[in-house]
Input
Amino acid sequence: MPETLLLTGGAGYIGSHTALTLLRRGRDVVVVDDLSNSSAESIRRVNRLSGREAVFYEADVRDRGKLKEIFANHKIDAVIHFAGYKAVGESVAEPLKYYQNNLDTTLALCETMPQFGVNRLIFSSSATVYGTSQNVPLKESEPTGCVNPYGRTKLMNEEILTDYANANKEFAVTILRYFNPVGADPSGEIGEDPRGIPNNLMPYITQVAVGRRPKLYVFGADYPTPDGTGVRDYIHVADLAEGHAAAYERMKPGVNVYNLGSGAGHSVLELVRAYEEANGVEIPYEITGRRPGDVAQSYADPGKANRELNWKTKRTLRDICRDAHNWQTRNPEGYQKS
Output
């Protein structure tokens, strides 16, 4: 009988791509998502693409009663925990919203899982836990420290899960620190669909490309980088999804932390040029001032994941740009009006 994974926040950008990867690998998938920043349409498309069926519950992970019902209805083998708010600016403006949601979803899982004998959890963390460190490439051993409430909730969740695992030796936790997920499934059926103004670079570029926005604003061109713009590690979301599958297949006792990144840094303008070249479009942009808290460069040392998970990125920057553009041109208004 196939193993069953519960994906919290599984209708979101990374969750939906991971659901598709797991279904294609023969796993059974149960998704719980409150749709506060996602769409049920993503799961319908995942089911169509995979030819299989992810079971979907529209619910808040903090609802202990509903969570117990879901665990009672399915024999869950492990949890991949994506559920959480993720906009940095919003977290600064509404910190309590972020602490209440992002921490309590984890607490609810830790309270509920042992009641049903489930003791394996993969946590969706972020390179934001490295704060303003300039020590690139970033290793998992780098000191942590965050500059905004969103990042602090990721780091606090890592600490909560580590403390819980230390107190409960049968509990296994894998923490995956993502760098910059971008791109979309090559089918163009699922992709990144942010609500309102995008917080991340790639959906901003794609929305400019299809005419939803007049131009891209580049925050700072005076960094100590080759072209003055910020350098980041961009990882195709399909590679990231495969990283979750690899992490599940190779879970070990205790707490294990892995960077999921390409190991290469690309500047903002380099990404813009790659996008233009891959898709034959022009992306107008305007240089503006730096954003507070942004670092000049951040990219991963993914060596630990390469060695221990037998995982590495396979898709190129051109693949990323092509697939992101394909998604946006096929779905110019995202899931809402497709």
